[in-house]
Design brief:
Layout (H helix, E strand, L loop, with lengths): L1 E3 L2 E3 L1 H11 L10 H12 L4 H10 L4 H10 L11 E6 L2 H6 L1 H12 L13 E2 L5 E6 L11 E3 L2 E3 L7 H12 L1
Parallel strand pairs: 3-5
Antiparallel strand pairs: 1-2, 3-6, 4-5, 6-7
The structure holds FE2/S2 (inorganic) cluster.
The site of FE2/S2 (inorganic) cluster has 12 residues, from helix 5.
Amino acid sequence: MSDCENFSVPAELEAEADKRITHYPENKRSAVLPLLHLIQHHFGFISEPAVKWVAAKLDLEPIKVLEVVTFYPGFRQEAPGKFHIRVCRTLSCAMGGSYELMDKLCELTGIDRSKTSHSNPIAVSPCGNFSVEFAECLASCGTAPVCMVNDDFHEAITDDKAADLLKQYKNDNQ
Ligand code: FES
């Protein structure tokens, strides 16, 4: 296990990170994206200590890693809720009602999206159980609007189905 300012990385994760770095023998810096994906997949988000850990691994200044994190909206700097909902906002889904779906999900969970931004795309419910984020095309345009809850895919989720969708996960939570 490796520590970086109280940030602990399990040995298996570090071994995987080391393996991925070897894929870029010419320039370790190219491993920034794969390492960030590994970290986010494991921890759910990329914290400041995680940025420093990746930077140390790749002999980079932390600001160089942070630039990558803030450039790609797919990287999260805040912990998501237990159930993270990604709502597609690309054309078919937008026309099918994905913005209305997002509004309804926020209304039902008490989520305030007013502070979201390009570099901070997620918002979390006060209870911490749910979080939301807009996503780009999830490759199921014919069944718009679509969303994902963690790794589960849901099709044709219009805003009138939002309550049932959430209920499914509230029940899972008990
Ligand atoms: S536009 Fe939403 S899945 Fe393609």
